[in-house]
Structure formats: structure tokens, C-alpha cells
Amino acid sequence: MEPLLRVSDVSKRFKVRGGHVSAVDDVSFYVQAGDTVGIVGESGSGKSTLARLVLRLIEPDTGEVVFDGKNVAEARGAGLKELRRGMQMVFQDPYSSVNPRMPIGGNIGFPMKVQGFGKREIRDRTADLLDQVGLHPNHASYYPHQLSGGQLQRVNIARALTMEPKLVVCDEPLSALDKSIQAQVLNLLRDLRERLGLTYLFISHDLNVVEYFSDHVLVVYLGHVVESCPAKDLYREPLHPYTKVLLSAIPSVDPDTRTEAQALGGEPPSPLDPPSGCRFRTRCPLAMDICAREKPALREAATGHSVACHLFEERV
Ligand SMILES: Nc1ncnc2c1ncn2[C@@H]1O[C@H](COP(=O)(O)OP(=O)(O)O)[C@@H](O)[C@H]1O
Ligand SMILES: [Mg+2]
């Protein structure tokens, strides 16, 4: 079955003062309809850039994005409109994506208005969406500043769902919320997935959340995918040294398996001047000579489990 989303060899560099940042470097992955693919990595690893490339908010330098059988870069006019409807995004900051001068109802109804829906249809669908995300229909008349961050993120989720998208891209949807609210919003996203059969690209810096929420996980480091595997394999058998460090930073509840959290050694390298070869080598406890010379390719080390690390390359 052709996946809903296929990202092939996509790269994006930004020109900045003092040179270039290669934010996303030769990234490939796919998302099957109905699945959740999680992307995890520290701040600055290129996650948001990747999301923006998928949604064609920015153009890649190389590579292609195929969504629902169509090359995203070639979409024009009505085709582009349909594509935009099919992919929606929930951003980190719940305040950044609502119009503060418009009541919640207007914010949710706006995409429908643009699509030419009637007044009554918009009102009914808005009430239904508010209900779906655990808010009250009366919230339609509130203004954004009258809602909490968690409520506003529910509004953003409702708005993302108005046009019945095939793919919802969530870019750190919990990061700006209070700890106590994060689980509620995560549960809402999970319930909606079950109820509506949603497909998510779910981005987070929190490996715990990604592992819990996703079917498949991509671990990214400075614009590279370093590991790609089913979520259940991530805990059971992490392969990349970076993934192991990320996992060890999560305290285990089981005292028998609790290990000393391994801190990431060294400074994070400057994205302006990333290390040669493997970009993780300057912080890797197992770095070898070859790691400075050659960039490790992402290779399948076990069925469905790929890793980009010289430790796992077959030597001839
Ligand atoms: N518009 C831009 N111009 C210049 N540099 C950018 C731009 N967007 C992102 N970057 C750089 O690209 C890298 C990846 O950023 P980003 O995709 O936001 O990472 P993440 O979402 O994982 O934190 C960072 O080094 C960031 O500074
Ligand atoms: Mg980001």
C-alpha cells in the first residue's frame, strides 16, 4: 500500500550570518494512513523545519514530499488548496495560531468560511468540534485571552480538524503547557485518533511521550535521522548511542533496572560548523576513528529497525 506521506532524501539549508545551517540533511521516511510517526530530538535538530517542509510552508533544496499520491512541490491552484486541506498542523504555542481579536467560534469557523460553508453549517460544525475536543459549545463566544493554555490548545486541535484532514502534524503540541495539562491534551489526541482514525506526524523533544504515543519513531540529531524503528523496539533494543543516552536520561520506575543517567558529554556542536562524518561523534561515548571520516548511512540493522552508526555497519 502506498503510504499517505512519503518524504524522500529531503534537505534544507538556511543562510545565516557566518555561513549556512543545514537544518534537515537527506531525510527519508514514510507515514502509513492510520499510523502515528513520532519524531524526537533535542532543540535545534531540525524537527520544525521538517514539519514545515512536509506542509510546504517552505521549499526543500533537494528531495521530494509525496502526500496522498501527489508531489507536494508540483501542486498548484485547486490542487494546492486540496493539499493544504488534507494536512493540518498543531503548533507548540497555542496563542500564536489564533487571532486574538476573534472569538473562538470565529477562529474555528474561519477555514470553513474560506471554503464557502453556510453560516448555519459553520455554527453547527463548530459546536460539534468544540464538543469533540472536550470544550463547551458556549466557548464559541469566548475570546482567546479568556481561555487557559490547555483550552486554547484544544481550540487549535478543533481548528486543525475542521476540514477533516488526512494528516495532522503536531509540532511539540504539549511543550508550552503546564505539566498537569500535558497528559490531558495527549489523551485527547489519542482519543481523537481512535474516534476519527487520524494519522499523525508527532514531534517532540520528549522521548517518553513519543514512545508512548507513536507506532514508529524517528530519532533525529542535527538534521540527520540516526535511528528509525517501531516504538516498541525503542525501549527494548535501542541501537544508536544517542538514543541510548536519551533513554537513560529518563528515570526508570523499576529500581532493579534503574541506571545512572548518562549525561550527554561535551557541548552541543554549532549547527554552523557541524562535526565531520557522524554529527554525534563529538558527544558519543563510543566514537571511533572512522566516525570523523565517514558519515554513517542509515541502514537496516534488524527487520524494520534502521540505525546510522558505524558500530552497526557490516565490515568486509
Ligand atoms: N528560517 C531560518 N533561518 C535560519 N536558520 C533557521 C531557520 N529555521 C531554522 N533554522 C535553524 O535550523 C536548525 C533547526 O531548527 P528547527 O527546525 O527549528 O529545530 P527544532 O524544531 O528541532 O528545534 C537550527 O539550527 C535553527 O537555528
Ligand atoms: Mg521546533
From TrEMBL:
Q: Where is this region: Disordered?
A: 258-277
Taxonomic placement: Bacteria, Bacillati, Actinomycetota, Actinomycetes, Pseudonocardiales
Give the GO molecular function terms. Answer: ATP binding; ATP hydrolysis activity
Q: Which residue intervals define the domain ABC transporter in the entry?
A: 5-247
Q: Which Pfam families match?
A: ABC_tran, oligo_HPY
User: Which PANTHER family would you find in this protein's record?
Assistant: D,D-DIPEPTIDE TRANSPORT ATP-BINDING PROTEIN DDPF-RELATED (PTHR43776:SF7), TRANSPORT ATP-BINDING PROTEIN (PTHR43776)
Q: Which SUPFAM superfamilies match?
A: P-loop containing nucleoside triphosphate hydrolases
The record's listing under InterPro entries reads: AAA+_ATPase, ABC_transp_ATP-bind, ABC_transporter-like_ATP-bd, ABC_transporter-like_CS, Oligopep_ABC_C, P-loop_NTPase
The record lists the membrane-crossing segments as: none
Going by the UniProt record, its keywords in alphabetical order are: ATP-binding, Nucleotide-binding, Transport
Member of which family? Belongs to the ABC transporter superfamily.
GO BP annotation list? peptide transport; transmembrane transport
Q: What is this protein called?
A: Peptide/nickel transport system ATP-binding protein/oligopeptide transport system ATP-binding protein
